[in-house]
Amino acid sequence: MGILDLFKRKPEVVEDLELSWLEVDMHSHLIPGIDDGSKTMEESLQLIKRLSDYGLRKIITTPHIMSEYYRNTPEIIRMGLEDLRKAVKKEGISIEIDAAAEYYMDEIFLEKIKDGEEVLTFGDNYILVETGFINKPQMLLEIIFQLEMAGYKPILAHPERYQYLISDKGLLQDLTDRNILFQVNMLSLTGFYSKPVKDFGEMLVETGQVRFFGTDCHNPRYLDMMEALPKSKLYQKIKQLDLLNSSL
Fold this sequence. Notes:
The chain has one domain: TIM Barrel (Alpha-Beta Barrel), CATH 3.20.20.140. The chain contains 9 helices and 9 strands. The model has no long low-confidence stretch (mean pLDDT 94). By secondary structure, the protein is an alpha/beta fold. Strand 1 (24-25), helix 1 and strand 2 (58-61) form a beta-alpha-beta unit.
């Protein structure tokens, strides 16, 4: 062996992404053409095939419902789900497909809850909710309270991405004390969004505050980047967490 051989690095062997431990992805945007996710049925089928190949047994896709941008309704989502299921079956992809929604928490959403309008839930009356990324919504705790009073169990989508939450430890403690369920994007642990998001996501994992993981898949780039997840220092740890995905 030459002396130079001592300094040669062996090529890094990256484990293939495998998600059978997760079983169910409960956050994605795979109904084509109704939000900022998949644009065509062909793209949706390609993404669903890849998710199936990772070992998932079920997908609960969650189109945005945002009053100013994506004015989806339960009827629109159910129609899109029916078309998607037919296409998946025709393509011979062996995976269960269901749908709910990712609700943007604003005044209009609050009125829907107070008025008892239909909202899309999944599992044990879970409802997936989100906020803007920079500023804390003034009515955040009020909306959560109204959801709980109505019998829903709110899941806060990708809390690690909210700048106001990263900088407000008191608010994080308030949400934790109220047993708000947190869903972290697996992409966050790869550094896909930013290092602060990655660091905060890792902290939520390390402190046991994560009850759901999701892909938040919008397009092929999301899955391309997610395949780096096995490089994460927490990859083995998250596979052992007591998550609620498998109960869905």
